[in-house]
Amino acid sequence: MPATSSDVPARSVLVTGASRGIGRAIAERFVAAGDRVATLHRSGELPAGVLGVPGDVRDTASVDAAFSAVEAEHGPVEVVVANAGITRDGLLMRMSDEDFAAVLDTNLTGAFRVARRASTGMIRARRGRIVLISSVVGMYGGAGQANYAASKAGLVGLARSITRELGGRGITANVVAPGFIDTAMTQDLPEDVKARYLAAIPAGRWGQVEEIAGVVEFLASPAAAYISGAVIPVDGGLGMGH
């Protein structure tokens, strides 16, 4: 029988964007499994048991310093989940260069900075798990979300390039693509918009943050050692594997 996360000794895990929503559920899942969990922290209340170190994924020096602090407390990072992200929606013809660049810098380049820094210790250890949190929008597209969709689609190329480069060193890199998940952001949508979205989801319901966390936990487990460069949609059938 394949090993599961409960069979794995406590690991050093870093989750970005762990103060709320999907990132918080992922961090809590790893804490519950007995791992030593940390996050780059700017604001917000963190889950119990999560070490918050000052850090900003938009700044290389800040990411490097945060990793060094985590390594001093928890040891080399063995699992990294790049979840931090922002949106600045707007129609293509009205979207500013600044709004496009800001979303790419946080969502895509930020994930690159985190994965790059994590890879140094993983290469040395000849093992590691990198999980990038994308979105169904990255494959499906979204009106008014050219910047967000581009940033989330870019994570696929990043994960697959990491797999080509580091797969022989026991390091996997995968993408999880959530659909519409029941978070504060979706709860604040107008009722007519929510009804339209729900009608498009074959499952007929919102996803739960715990469902995303469960897939991430699996990808970080020994049972997923032969999965790399994959895109795992968790969207109730909305994207149908696109």
Written description of the protein model:
- With 242 residues, this protein is α/β, with parallel strands linked by helices.
- It has one domain: Rossmann fold, CATH 3.40.50.
- It has helices at residues 21-32, 60-74, 97-125, 136-140, 146-166, 184-187, 191-200, 209-219; strands at residues 12-15, 36-41, 50-54, 79-82, 128-133, 171-178, 231-234.
- It has a 7-stranded parallel sheet, sandwiched between helices.
- Residues 1-5 have low confidence and may be disordered.
Quick summary:
With 242 residues, this protein is an alpha/beta fold. The protein has 8 helices and 7 strands, in the order βαββαβαβααβαααβ.
How is the secondary structure organized here?
Layout: E1 12-15, H1 21-32, E2 36-41, E3 50-54, H2 60-74, E4 79-82, H3 97-125, E5 128-133, H4 136-140, H5 146-166, E6 171-178, H6 184-187, H7 191-200, H8 209-219, E7 231-234
Parallel strand pairs: 1-2, 1-4, 2-3, 4-5, 5-6, 6-7
Helix pairs in contact: 1-8, 2-3, 3-5
Which superfamily, in CATH terms, is the homologous superfamily?
NAD(P)-binding Rossmann-like Domain
Q: Report the span from N to C terminus.
A: 31 Å
What order do the SSEs take from the amino end to the carboxyl end, as H and E? EHEEHEHEHHEHHHE
Strands ordered across the widest β-sheet: 3-2-1-4-5-6-7
The CATH class is: Alpha Beta
> Low-confidence segments, ≥5 residues, pLDDT <50?
1-5
How would you sum up the global shape?
globular
Averaged pLDDT, please? 94
Q: According to CATH, what is the topology?
A: Rossmann fold
Which features characterize this protein?
globular; alpha/beta; 242 residues; 7 strands; single chain; seven-stranded parallel sheet; 8 helices; Rossmann fold
